[in-house]
Amino acid sequence: MYYPVEQSYMKDSRNRKDIIFQLNFLRNEIDSCGAAEEMQHVFPEGYFFTHLLYGLTWAELCNQVPVESEIWQKGQKEAYWALGILDSDYSKNFFYENLDPSYGAFYVSWRTWFRGELLKSQPSKKRDSIQSKIFLNDCMALKNAFEKKGIPFIETYPNAVWPADFIIGIAALRLHDNIFEPKFSDVIAEWLKECEKRLDTETGLIPHSANPNTGYSAEGARGSSQSLILRFLYVIDEDFAKEQYLIFKKLFVKTLFGLPCVREYPINASGTKDIDSGPVILGIGASATIVTLGTVTTEGPGLVF
C-alpha cells in the first residue's frame, strides 16, 4: 500500500533529513538484506512496489528542493536507479505481458506516475527527452486501453480488476497535461463519466474490485482502497474527489479512543483482514487509517478528518 508523504512536510529541512535517513535505510535493506525479494514473498507486487516506493519518494522530494541542490542531485540518481529496476525484464516477469496495456493496470499505472513525478522535478528546458518519450508512450497505452475496452477499470491480472490501480493511470494522464502540452483532457472527461456510472450501489463510492467485462462493482467500497483512490482522484478532478470524500467520511471515518481512524468496511458492515487491509482491529483498518492520514494532509486537497 502506498503511504503518501505530505508534500508540505518535505519542505521543512528538518523533516527532509528524517525522510532521507529512512530512504538511506531502505536502500541498504534493498541492497544488503534482500528487502524487495522478501516483500515479493508477502504480496504479488512486493518486489516492484519496494523499488517504486523508494524511487517515487526521492522523485517527490526532488520536487520540493532547489534544482541542482545536493539533495536534488542525489534524488535524481536514486530515482533513476529505481526506475531502471521497474523497467527491467525481471520486474515485468511478475506481471502478464498479454494484457492491455501490456503487464496490466498496476504495473503501467504506477510506473507511469513515477516517471511523471521524476520528469516534473526537472527544469522544462532540460527535461530528459528519452524519459519524456517513454512517459508519453505509456500514457497513450493507458488511454488506448480505456478507449478499446470502454470501461473505466482495466485488469491488473487476467480477469482481476482493482479500480484503484487504473485510477493511478488516469491521474498520470492528468500529470502529463500539467507538465507538457495537454493531450488527454477529453479522455479524462470520458473516463469520469464512465466511472460515475459504475459507483458501488451500496455506498455511492468507487468499488474495491470490479467485473473485468463490465466495470461494475464486484466488491463494494473498502477503506484501504478508498484512501488511495481519493489521493489520486483529487489529481484527476477536485470536485468529484471532494464529493467522494464526503461520502467516505460519513461511512468510514470514526473516532476511537479520541483519535480519528478509518474503518476497513463501511458502517454496519464487516469483513476479514487481507493483504490490502493489513490488521483490522475493532473494525479499524491499519492501511486505511495510515493512507487516509497521508491523503488528507497532502498539499492541495483541503480535506479533513
Care to describe what's here?
The chain has 305 residues and is mainly alpha-helical. The protein has helices spanning 7-11, 13-33, 35-40, 46-62, 70-87, 89-92, 104-120, 129-149, 163-179, 185-197, 223-236, 238-252, 286-297, and strands at residues 209-210, 217-219, 253-256, 259-262, 280-281, 284-285. It has 2 domains: 7-221, no CATH class; 222-305, no CATH class. β1 (209-210) and β2 form a beta hairpin. The longest helix is centred in the N-terminal third of the chain and has 21 residues, at 13-33. Residues 299-303 have low confidence and may be disordered.
Task: Annotate the secondary structure layout.
Layout: H1 7-11, H2 13-33, H3 35-40, H4 46-62, H5 70-87, H6 89-92, H7 104-120, H8 129-149, H9 163-179, H10 185-197, E1 209-210, E2 217-219, H11 223-236, H12 238-252, E3 253-256, E4 259-262, E5 280-281, E6 284-285, H13 286-297
Antiparallel strand pairs: 1-2, 3-4, 5-6
Helix pairs in contact: 2-4, 4-5, 4-7, 5-7, 7-8, 7-9, 8-9, 9-11, 11-12, 11-13
Instruction: Please give the count of helices.
Output: 13
Broad shape: globular
Mean pLDDT: 89
Q: How much strand content do the residues show?
A: 5-15%
Radius of gyration equals 19 Å
Major sheet attributes: 2 strands, antiparallel
- Poorly predicted runs of 5 or more residues: 299-303
Count of discrete domains: 2
Our measurement of the CA-to-CA distance between the termini, rounded to an integer number of angstroms, reads 20 Å
Give the SSE string. HHHHHHHHHHEEHHEEEEH
The strand count comes to 6
By secondary-structure content and strand pairing, the structural class works out as: mainly alpha
**Helix-residue proportion:** 55-70%
